[in-house]
């Protein structure tokens, strides 16, 4: 919904879509704000708590994304309140319009928040995240281009060329977004090509001392603790002792255990769609194996 609100103010005034959407812009903004507040309430109970109580436990990307979320909420609340017509009528038009310019900062933080969470996964070759990066980069670059072209057209009084310029800008932004995604995919393929052969890694991790070892590492929401059993120099069992990650994701992440057991080492891929949870399991197993030695 915020995308509709964004472009309603970026497209040419008086155009047919804008005439239909402009009267609804306030209501759309209110609905989008309510959904955003609900989203932040759901995830904030984990990430905001960790941000203010134990920021070091958050990976850098999640830490920066959480900071962006807090700043977004601080900006969004006054925008949300003043979107109600009863409140707007009590404000001076110039003051209300000046306050609404805070939305530009909100959109910028929203873009940063999304990219901080998706680009790292896109770089690792996750096709879903690459598509997400493509869509959002296209949307935000197109909005920025349309907003700038509208401001320039208004200053030069050349509104007749505005629609054409904006169409060209959107096409260019789409092409640029596609280039970004292709670059991310290329970076991942290069890293895969330069990775050492699996056989050499397997050999270097054989011969663990027999016993049962425990280890822990950060998952999606909290530390994951595992128990690792070694027999005859091989990893024979991996059990989860504790985890507070969300169940749908964590259930998928458990498939990484079979990969570790089959490979007899932790140099395996994370599970698509459960990257942080499966990565936490891998790191926890690795921490346990440090006690096993070689």
UniProtKB/TrEMBL annotation:
<dbReference type="GO" id="GO:0016020">
    <property type="term" value="C:membrane"/>
</dbReference>
<keyword id="KW-1133">Transmembrane helix</keyword>
<feature type="transmembrane region" description="Helical">
    <location>
        <begin position="60"/>
        <end position="81"/>
    </location>
</feature>
<feature type="transmembrane region" description="Helical">
    <location>
        <begin position="28"/>
        <end position="48"/>
    </location>
</feature>
<feature type="transmembrane region" description="Helical">
    <location>
        <begin position="129"/>
        <end position="146"/>
    </location>
</feature>
<keyword id="KW-0812">Transmembrane</keyword>
<feature type="transmembrane region" description="Helical">
    <location>
        <begin position="102"/>
        <end position="123"/>
    </location>
</feature>
<dbReference type="InterPro" id="IPR007329">
    <property type="entry name" value="FMN-bd"/>
</dbReference>
<dbReference type="GO" id="GO:0010181">
    <property type="term" value="F:FMN binding"/>
</dbReference>
<protein>
    <submittedName>
        <fullName>FMN-binding protein</fullName>
    </submittedName>
</protein>
<keyword id="KW-0472">Membrane</keyword>
<feature type="domain" description="FMN-binding">
    <location>
        <begin position="219"/>
        <end position="292"/>
    </location>
</feature>
<feature type="transmembrane region" description="Helical">
    <location>
        <begin position="167"/>
        <end position="185"/>
    </location>
</feature>
<dbReference type="Pfam" id="PF04205">
    <property type="entry name" value="FMN_bind"/>
</dbReference>
């Amino acid at each position: 919904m915020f995308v509709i609100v964004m472009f309603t103010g970026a497209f040419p005034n008086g155009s047919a879509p804008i005439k239909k959407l402009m009267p609804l812009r306030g209501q759309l903004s209110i609905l989008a704000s309510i959904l955003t507040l609900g989203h932040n309430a759901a995830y904030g109970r984990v990430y905001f708590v960790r941000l203010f109580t134990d920021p070091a436990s958050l990976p850098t990307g999640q830490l920066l994304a959480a900071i962006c979320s807090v700043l977004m909420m601080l900006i969004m609340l006054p925008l949300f309140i003043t979107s109600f017509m009863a409140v707007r009528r009590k404000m001076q038009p110039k003051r209300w319009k000046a306050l609404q310019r805070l939305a530009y900062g909100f959109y910028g933080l929203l873009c940063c928040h999304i990219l901080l969470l998706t680009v790292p996964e896109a770089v690792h070759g996750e096709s879903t995240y690459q598509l997400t990066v493509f869509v959002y980069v296209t949307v935000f670059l197109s909005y920025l281009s349309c907003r700038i072209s509208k401001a320039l057209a208004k200053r030069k009084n050349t509104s007749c060329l505005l629609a054409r310029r904006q169409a060209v800008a959107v096409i260019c932004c789409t092409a640029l977004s596609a280039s970004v995604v292709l670059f991310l995919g290329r970076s991942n393929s290069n890293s895969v090509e330069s990775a050492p052969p699996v056989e050499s890694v397997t050999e270097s991790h054989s011969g663990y001392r027999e016993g049962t070892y425990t280890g822990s590492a950060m998952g999606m929401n909290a530390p994951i603790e595992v128990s690792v059993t070694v027999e005859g120099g091989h990893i024979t069992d991996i059990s989860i002792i504790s985890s507070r990650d969300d169940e749908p994701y964590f259930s998928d992440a458990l498939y990484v255990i079979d990969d570790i057991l089959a490979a007899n080492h932790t140099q395996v891929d994370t599970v698509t769609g459960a990257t942080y949870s499966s990565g936490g399991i891998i790191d926890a197993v690795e921490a346990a194996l440090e006690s096993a030695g070689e």
